[in-house]
Design goal:
The structure is a single chain. The chain is an alpha/beta fold. Helices cover 36% and strands 13% of the residues. Helix 4 crosses helix 5. It is globular and about 50 Å long.
Length: 189
């Protein structure tokens, strides 16, 4: 799902997660985001709108000691940084077998040696009911870049909406842009 910032990517993720949990009630959901603040933000958003007990939603980042993370993987919805999940998969601290949905935020990072391609491939190997939802506001400048991201994650369908799209236009907020020019330090130049 490619949508401009502020147009509901997280809401789509919450709805898909709720549908997967309804379809597979004993399954788990894994939400990946590249930074600790984004992991926390997603955890709070899901907590606001999903009818789950607080302990069923767990944020897992590298700041949580490895020996404590294993117990947290029992939660129904896990929010994590990709490096943490990759490390825990490599160390056999966790398994993706019971996860019915993998949500990858900032999907455009799924290139090169970033952790997203590794996790997506492991997920597709391990999960018994796999579904991947990728979210980004900037999918890449070319169709080749988008294809690379899809190939790296096993994603088969892409939905892109821009600010000019008729479906999106009614929901746009007016932007007030004010440019601020700053002098860069010599070291930056």
């Amino acid at each position: 799902v490619c949508l401009p910032t502020g147009l509901g990517k997280t809401n789509i993720a919450i709805l898909v997660a709720a549908a997967r949990l309804e379809q597979f009630p004993s399954s788990q959901i894994l939400v990946l985001a590249p930074t600790k603040p984004l992991v926390s933000q997603h955890c709070h958003s899901f907590a606001r709108f999903m009818a789950l007990e607080k302990q069923q939603l767990q944020a897992i980042t590298g700041t949580v000691p490895a020996e404590k993370r294993q117990a947290l993987y029992a939660a129904q919805v896990i929010f994590a940084t990709p490096q943490t999940i990759q490390n825990d998969l490599e160390q056999k601290v966790c398994s993706l077998e019971d996860f019915s949905l993998l949500i990858i935020d900032e999907l455009h990072h799924a290139v090169g040696n970033y952790a997203y391609p590794f996790i997506a491939q492991e997920y597709l190997k391990q999960a018994t009911q796999p579904r991947i939802l990728g979210l980004t506001a900037s999918p890449g400048g070319t169709s080749l870049k988008i294809k690379e991201i899809c190939d790296n994650t096993g994603i088969e369908a892409v939905e892109i909406r821009t600010e000019k799209d008729l479906y999106v236009a009614p929901y746009l907020q007016e932007k007030n842009v004010q440019w601020e020019y700053v002098e860069l330090p010599e070291s930056f130049l």
